[in-house]
Design brief:
Layout (H helix, E strand, L loop, with lengths): L3 E8 L3 E10 L2 E11 L11 H23 L3 E6 L3 E2 L3 E2 L3 H4 L9 E2 H8 L5 E5 H6 L9 E6 L3 E7 L2 E2 L32 H5 L1 H13 L6 H19 L4 E4 L1 H6 L1 H11 L10 H4 E3 L6 H12 L1
Parallel strand pairs: 1-4, 4-8, 9-12, 12-13
Antiparallel strand pairs: 1-2, 2-3, 5-6, 6-7, 9-10, 10-11
Length: 300
């Protein structure tokens, strides 16, 4: 493969980010970055989901064209916060457009981008899948959890993301972890999902409630659902590496990791597991999906 200059996108629930990545012999190198707010349903609740999608596609096309002219970019990788089946069919994007936007799904993201960028080679994938490719090589079996606006998860076995035949793998975060009738509601419309209990948006809600009551938020109680998810993956698959990334992980840092370690020790059978060694924080550079997406393009 000749030198590739990939324009890589990380479409998050809070921010849209793009980067120009040179795939060089000694690894990927960032040449440029751009960021703007995501037109999500919380910022514009009256904006139709179709308009929010068009805004996102416009951001991708505009930055790619500018990067092609400036850097000679010749490929595109884009990571989206929802399940993607096949090459480019999006099944849901709840953190961007909320429950009402499900009426647009499924849709062929690749076809929409090809209309705006004809002839451009592209790789489209789930955002956590993209981020996971950055860590392949350090170890081939691991789980990556991203704590951002929502919670993302992907399990890599033998260096390959395991999503199943229909792309549903990794959506443990939309499983009910709190069945109580007053459990918080998830972006997807479900109630008591892991993503509603322990995401960045959930921490904002918990922190605000604690502040109103004149106390500090209980971090150990907050991470209990996360440690339960870690334990489920460990006991079912035997995974021994769990990487936490995303804005919340970067913001809370080591206290978050320490709390997850402490909580995991009470989640099941203890036969000598070193939870402290098994649970780690990703590098706090917020570039995992951007770099991993470019690497995934090279790997395709």
């Amino acid at each position: 493969m000749g030198e590739k200059i990939v324009v890589s996108f990380d479409i998050g629930g809070t921010n849209l980010r793009g980067a120009v990545v040179a795939l060089e012999a000694d690894g990927p190198r960032l040449l440029d970055q751009v960021r703007r707010a995501t037109p999500n349903y919380l910022l514009g609740p009256d904006t139709p989901a179709a308009e929010r999608l068009a805004d996102v596609l416009g951001f991708i096309a505009e930055y790619f064209n500018a990067s092609r002219e400036r850097f000679g970019a010749n490929a595109l990788a884009a990571a989206f916060p929802g399940p993607i089946v096949g090459e480019s069919t999006v099944l849901a994007l709840p953190t961007v457009w909320g429950p009402d936007g499900q009426s647009l799904c499924p849709f062929d993201l690749g076809a929409m981008l090809a209309e705006r960028l004809p002839g451009v080679p592209m790789k489209l994938m789930n955002d956590v899948t993209a981020a996971g490719y950055r860590f392949v090589g350090d170890s081939d079996d691991f789980a990556l959890l991203t704590l951002g606006s929502a919670i993302g998860l992907k399990v890599f076995i033998d260096g390959v993301p395991r999503v199943g035949p229909h792309g549903y793998g990794g959506e443990l975060t939309h499983m009910v972890f709190d069945p109580s009738p007053d459990a918080p509601r998830c972006d997807c419309g479900g109630q008591g999902h892991l993503g509603a209990l322990a995401s960045g948006r959930a921490w904002q809600r918990v922190s605000a409630a604690a502040s109103a009551a004149g106390r500090e938020p209980d971090l150990l109680a907050f991470v209990e659902p996360l440690s339960r998810a870690v334990a489920m993956l460990h006991y079912s698959l035997g995974l021994e590496r769990f990487i936490f990334s995303g804005g919340l992980a970067e913001g809370l840092g080591e206290p978050l990791r320490t709390a997850i370690v402490a909580s995991a020790q009470g989640q099941g059978w203890q036969v000598g597991q070193d939870w402290n060694a098994m649970i780690e924080l990703a590098p706090a550079d917020d570039a995992h999906a951007l770099l991993g997406g470019a690497l995934a393009f090279a790997d395709r």
